[in-house]
Amino acid sequence: KDVAVLVPAAGMGVRLGGGTPKALRELAGEPLLVHACRRLGLAPSVAMIVIAAPPDDVAAVRALVPGATVVPGGATRQQSVAAALAVVPESIEVVLVHDAARALTPPELVEAVAAAVRAGAAAVVPALPVVDTIKRVDAGEHVLETVDRAPLRVIQTPQGFPRQTLVRAHAEAVDEHTDDAGMVERLGHKVHCVPGSDLALKITRPLDLLIAESLLAAHPL
Ligand code: CTP
Ligand code: MG
Question: What is the CATH number of the domain that holds 194?
Answer without folding.
Answer: 3.90.550.10
